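Deliverable D4.2, example record:
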Amino acid sequence: MLAQSARHACGKSLEDLIANADMVTEHLSGTLESRQVVMQRGCRLNLANGNATVIVNCTHTPVSIPGEFSGVMLELRKVDHLMRIEQDEQLIIQQEATHALLRGLAHEIKNPLGGLRGAAQLLEREIHDDELKEYTQIIIGEADRLQNLIDRMLWPKNVPSMQAVNIHHILERVSDLVLAEVNSGLKIIKDYDPSLPELQADPDLLVQAVLNIVRNAVQALGGKGEIRLRTRIRRQFNIGTRRHRLVASVQVIDNGPGIDEDLREKIFYPMITTRSDGTGLGLSIAQSLINRHQGLIECSSKPGNTVFTILLPLDSTQ
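Output generated by the structure prediction step:
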């Protein structure tokens, strides 16, 4: 837990092992004086030998042997794993609420969309100029495209069109699309794990999900900065409460200003945005699309390092 062997750790002071040991030591003297057990929950400890951080529950228990010594037994119980499962469960609950809301929104969109398409067809019958008919064909074609997109994203009867997909091909396509949209001030760094196997996914839905996240990063950077696309494989890994033998981890990392903590907790809800011209649907839709692949998107952020992690199970491909 402390990234030290027992042989190296024994005999060292707490300050030698934990950079911010004052979070724990301030309770030691109080425990000795009060002779009462003191508990601290969710302590974030920075390890002294690197940049790693662990989250623990601390229990301070007074210990004494008459005539020999008095002291405090400190127990550190790592809770990172449990906290991540709780956060994943909360994201899944958010996604269920989001899906219900978007289904209602889609219903309201489909009704006028049908009327728009029908009006364009009637208008086309009255037009004899082939050049003008091109415009009605555009209206009909775009209405059909929007109808198809809504159905594929929101209607459970339309299951994703699963096939073997190389996630790096998806990332390359997204990278090309984004670089074509912005100026030369944006740099995309690729950090791929070549051992990552193919996964079963709908490539179009996957492109849309990743594209939404990368575009969100571009907007946070103002079109200037660095975005890192990183892939890794994780073994015996939990997505929510379900454990998977193999999971593909796809991270979109930017060096922008970061996301406020208050906003971070609800960033996957629809209509949540900090931009005056934003719809607040991009990340919500991305979460919905990844969820349809039995996966999940997690977010962590601090100034200069915002990370969106897409987790996709590989079990079905093994």
